[in-house]
Amino acid sequence: MSCSVRSENLQSPRSIWSHPDVKTSEIVTIQPVESLIVPTALDGRMGTNRGEAGKSQLSADNDLDAVRAWLTNYADTKTTFDNYRKEAERLLLWGVAQLGKPLSSLTHEDLLVFKTFLADPQPADRWISANGGKYPRGDARWRPFNGPLSTASQRQALVILNGMFTWLVSAGYLRGNPMALLRQRAKRSAPRVTRYLSISLWDEVKAFVEQLPRETDGERAYYARGRWLTTLFYLQGMRISEVAGGQMGNFFRRLGADGRDQWWLETLGKGDKERIVPASPELIQELKRYREAMGLSALPTRADETPLILPFRGKARCLSRSAVHDAIKSVFSGAATWLRDQGPEFSDRADELERASAHWLRHTAGSHQADGGVDLRTIRDNLGHVSLNTTSLYLHTEDDERYRETTERHRMNWDGKKRPAE
């Protein structure tokens, strides 16, 4: 179904610091939780918030093992597991290294300080990776943070940690949830999506791709990838993880109610949920173009394990999420430079393109489908959203109608033809 993910070689970083209240013999090394060693005095065996003796449903007798037990609930969903582990280890490391307190002794007041810390982790050399880079967890340059967290990321961190504390209380490991005492701001209605490209700016991206040079093999390969990447993200509305992990064999065809072939793309989305997305004749034509440019047969078979995006050199293996991210950012950056060269009046549009990312294309796909009159239920199913609202859980669009609506109304239009009239 998808490309496998290789596990990282775990090594212990060398960044060491201890809180003034912690004895020299109890120095804590700032390192990932899977290789973290916590001194006995800070491991939570005697935590002031520990549950009643003999009542815990966990075999864990220290905070680190309790956190690991909580994380096992999410081991089958890599993205969720990585995010939850990241927030848990930040809090645990901050407690033992910055406060000299185990997680099971943290109080409401401690967590108020932690909220402030998330906005500006200091000292930076201890907590933030060099140059804000993303290094493997076994790399000595790894740190818990790549920089200060945005307001939205701070809020998400607290939501995850509140869930962790609630689970530890339910398991009987902790007596109470200090996170529950934090003041929760009233939930605001979801804002209108702003991180997307307008149709006119999207047309500029396509124009940039089409004017790319194609004199050398390298230039032709870059053009082919840029055209295929932008087409795939836009027409299918895929997440970057879905593109990075997808294979050409995920494309398949079946007969529609009208007796004609329909192409679909099977993908493994968020929460390991499978979905199928209509693959329009336009997309299949672009698939053929890309495959032939890369020396492959025109169409894949179901057994084809070729990645959706091929590397320029070396073995035909799946690109990492960061590599796919860099590839689409390269297109946006190039388009921004191209726009600036056209005159100062294009500088604002170029700045917007510089900020764009692969996820902007997912929002762009959804926004343009909605603007083009595609039923919101169809968009929900295409993008793999859980629901529009509670009522929409009971509404469904038949596959044949979803195929027709998506392929007729949502087009790449490399040839410049206008959308079909309403």
Distance between the termini: 37 Å
Query: What overall geometry do the principal axes of the alpha carbons give?
Result: elongated
Which spans of ≥5 residues are poorly predicted at pLDDT below 50?
Answer: 4-26, 388-396
Q: Given the helix and strand composition, which structural class is it? A: mainly alpha
State the fourth-level CATH superfamily of the largest domain: Intergrase catalytic core
List the domain count as a whole number.
2
Give helix % range: 40-55%
Protein described:
Helix 7 (217-236) crosses helix 12. The chain is mainly alpha-helical. The strands form two sheets. Strands 3-4-5 form a three-stranded antiparallel β-sheet. The chain has helices at residues 63-71, 78-99, 108-119, 124-127, 151-170, 199-210, 217-236, 240-245, 281-293, 321-340, 347-355, 358-371, 376-383, 399-409; strands spanning 16-17, 28-29, 251-255, 261-268, 274-279. Helices cover 43% and strands 5% of the residues. It has two domains: 16-181, no CATH class; 199-409, hpI Integrase, Chain A. Mean pLDDT is 82; it is low at 4-26 and 388-396. The radius of gyration is 25 Å and the shape is elongated.
Task: Outline the secondary-structure elements.
Elements: E1 16-17, E2 28-29, H1 63-71, H2 78-99, H3 108-119, H4 124-127, H5 151-170, H6 199-210, H7 217-236, H8 240-245, E3 251-255, E4 261-268, E5 274-279, H9 281-293, H10 321-340, H11 347-355, H12 358-371, H13 376-383, H14 399-409
Antiparallel strand pairs: 1-2, 3-4, 4-5
Helix pairs in contact: 1-2, 2-5, 6-10, 7-9, 7-12, 10-11
